[in-house]
């Protein structure tokens, strides 16, 4: 059965609004005063003295209105009087393409202040939205560079070739095939709230960086290892499956890792447990999960609970309760996680993983990361931050105005 998960904040409905109220809500929610004041003190706004606040507002308007380039932002300001008014720009002082380009370079120089804006928004979201950050979903998405990677010397020197795909077996001989998708550019690694479908932390890397290595940096940036922002579960696909990731989630973050285990040859334990980590009894049957006892997982004899018939010549115990096995989670949280993979709770939590895929789709299709027109790692990072800031500020702005009431009204 296919289950459609309805988010608490419907970002698509927010983006479909035609008036400039959404721009006002985003600009009001963005904690950018420190950034603007620093830029205003540098006195670099050009011959016409363009307004720093106006150029900042223009870039945010460009993200909201899906302007793919700085030239598109200029055209938006020239043709839309209402947008100019909201941005505080007069018709005779519309910033030129070059002025916006210089402003973008200044944002790159002060990327730390942009990061502070993002962190402040996440902090406010935790205060306004009940349960925000309790369940995190992690994944990465491709960002194609504004450069031809097939050239001997690509114009974007920071971009790299990346590949994503899935291995699967087909045919009666079960031949292993792998369908790969290649792109030249970057990877945006995201940790998002699985219920509100909003970003909590991000890391940008060249496309050739492995997803597995980015789990710990993402969770540390999200504050998942801090006592005041503890999470309950971290959900990811099997690309993030490793002993170090599972241990960090369980011991460092005190959370449950909800990650499928990779069935790698040589990593199995015949006659001890199956591919999911479920222990096997002496006759080869899967033992029945019987709940968690503190830091241990409890399993019972499958015959004693009516889940199989023991074929062993000798009974493992004379007790009618059947043989009981307790496994310490801390010894191997990858193979024996605190929420076992055969449990319904694990399946229910894992279904929340699609939240990060929807956020990836929105930042690319609705907020412009699918068609970037900037080059270089620093500029792409700033461009990605602007999209994530707009998404988060939209939710915070709505929550500020009407609490959760308006957020829930947007749910279709």
Annotation field: number of helices: 13
Shape: elongated
Major sheet attributes: 6 strands, mixed
Which regions contain 5 or more consecutive residues with pLDDT less than 50? 1-6, 168-175, 408-412
Task: Report the helical percentage.
Answer: 25-40%
Mean pLDDT over all positions: 85
| Number of DSSP-assigned strands | 9
Strand content: 15-25%
What does this structure look like?
By secondary structure, this protein is of the alpha+beta class. The chain folds into three domains: 11-128 and 376-409, no CATH class; 135-262 and 350-356, no CATH class; 265-332, no CATH class. 37% of the residues lie in helices and 17% in strands. It contains 13 helices and nine strands. The chain has helices spanning 11-15, 21-29, 33-41, 52-64, 70-79, 81-87, 97-109, 111-128, 215-221, 243-252, 344-350, 354-365, 377-409, and strands spanning 135-144, 160-170, 175-193, 198-206, 233-235, 256-258, 288-293, 296-300, 324-328. Strands 1, 2, 3, 4, 5 and 6 form a six-stranded mixed β-sheet that branches. A hairpin with a 4-residue loop joins β2 (160-170) and β3.
